[in-house]
Amino acid sequence: MDERTRAEVERAEAALVEHYPHLVRLAYLVLPPSMGRHRKVLTAHGLVQRALPWRVPRRRAGALPAQRGPHAAGSGYELVRQRTLELALAYEQRQRPAVLLPTVPFVWGLRLFPRAGGADELALDQALSAAPAAVRAAMGLWHLEGLEADAARAVLARAGVPDPDAAQRAAGQLDRRTGAGAAALLNSAEFDPCTVQARPTDLLRRRQRVRATAALAAVLAAGVVALALPDGRPGRGPVSTAAQQALDSGRLLRAPNEQWARTSRVDFTAWPPRGREAGDRQLLARALQVWAAPPPGTRIVAAADTSTRPPAAPPRLLYAGLIDNVMVVVFHDGERLVRYAEPADATPTLHFARVDGADLAAAGGLVIGRGNGWLRYLIAPWVADVATRDLLAPDAPSRGLHLAPDGVTDRIPLPPADDAACGHWPVAAFRSSPRLDDRRSFLVTDLGDLAPVHLTYLGPSTAGGPGGPGEATGGPALRSWARTACTLRSLRGTGVRAVNNWAYAQQGLPEGGGTASWVCNRADTWRGPGRVMLQFQPPAAGPADPGRIVGREVDTAVCSPFGRDVLGDVHWRAKSGKWYVLAAGSSDVAGIDVTGGVRATADATALAAPAASNAPARVTGRLRDGRPLRALWP
Hints:
Elements: H1 3-18, H2 20-30, H3 37-49, H4 76-94, E1 110-114, H5 119-129, H6 133-144, H7 149-158, H8 164-178, H9 182-186, E2 196-200, H10 202-228, H11 238-246, H12 281-292, E3 299-302, E4 316-323, E5 326-332, E6 336-343, E7 349-354, E8 365-371, E9 374-379, E10 383-390, E11 399-401, E12 412-413, E13 426-432, E14 441-445, E15 453-458, E16 470-471, H13 475-482, E17 496-508, E18 515-525, E19 530-537, E20 548-556, E21 567-573, E22 579-585, E23 589-596, E24 600-602, E25 606-610, E26 617-623, E27 628-630
Helix pairs in contact: 1-4, 2-3, 2-4, 2-6, 6-7, 6-8, 10-11, 10-12
């Protein structure tokens, strides 16, 4: 090698040392986002360190090193920048970490990632993640390197980009979509792999690997024994293969971003994977291993009648990212949501919830994070916007809620605890995208599970009973729910899917007492059985004045499409001090009879008869087809 070549290498080495953070930032921008931020940080450093020529000539004893060249064409900096860009672009085609493993810095026991930015940085990061590597390279040469179009085109061409002009045009379009501040954002800490945060993972990972390996070995041993049985039954061998595949983060199901707009099945199977760590295979593998074999100390929370069994097949990835300093991964295995939460200073938590048979509203969101008095939702891709309102203030307007580009909401207050005063009841209002034919707004509330509870309403004018509840977003629905909301606390931890308020009857009260509503409040669970609470709501002193519970029943079809007939009764005191027995039934009730300490009858859906306050009364209804119907008991 001649002296000129030796000088070029020495200039390149000097330029690499001087501009190392700049080069690593460029490599980090171009590398594939699917790698996850930890691997991208390490790989970016490894690429830049590998950018020098492999055969560096030995300097003669006493010779001085070459002077550092300027940051310009023909300099040592241009040499290492070109080599860095070539390696980063080639890595996207390979997508195999083993190719560069020997030259990637090795970190044991820590995960590294750049500091999180704000909403603008996140939006730009997601836009860049959807762009090809050549477009990201063009953006880097433009905004990080400050190159003119012709110079950047030449650099891209030398790096092997097939169509540099197309890459630059696409970069220009991306820049216009993300706003005028793209250059400042790319130079922020969000895209700086030299200023990173570190989180420990090693001790937890060791325990998980040992337990997961033991569990997998047991499954393999069972498969071998089954194959050895002399019963001639085939099909035992694939059990171990399925177990291995279920724990393989590379086999996770991932829906395309726009599948929800092209399918008739709008549920959790149409959710694309979101979150900045959706490409972090180490994180995903850890979450799968903890699910398969939870290490000692793992907190496991399961909704009512929800299995915590390991995955039988590769689940679907819905989210992976950092939520309020907790690393969160969410899977869907076809019938359950599984949330893995990995705090920095504690053992992980697994949360399971049934969601089989979820529809557009039931799959409209999930609880992605929960803290002291607050929660965050991750909303479905078909939800266009989110607002919050207080269910106890039906006439107050809703308040818009900020939504991050990855679908995570701002914090929402939790409903009051069981032992606290019920002075408010926060709910979220989701509005579906105009791209859906079934466009609507719907209310959801939190009752402690991963899946929020859908609130619905059916008015008294609906004939034939609750064939199809409507959304609880109109004035009558909100006023009805204002008087019922606080009863929702009794449903916590019962695996509720949806709660419907059916105002099945209106009754004029004696002595000019106004009009009362009879409401059947039905809670349906994910496992099937429902719980019914009958409420008598006389004219209210205030919008949130609670009604009186006059009947209950569990494991029943009453007030559902399969149990459309309902009857309730109550002792009520008029303003004069006189007591009455009141009764009201649904539309198919043709008559009501009262026996016992009170005798009365009416050939109508409602009855009012004078009675002592403590007079025993047995109320029975007569349906139009002649069948009897007993009133629900408190």
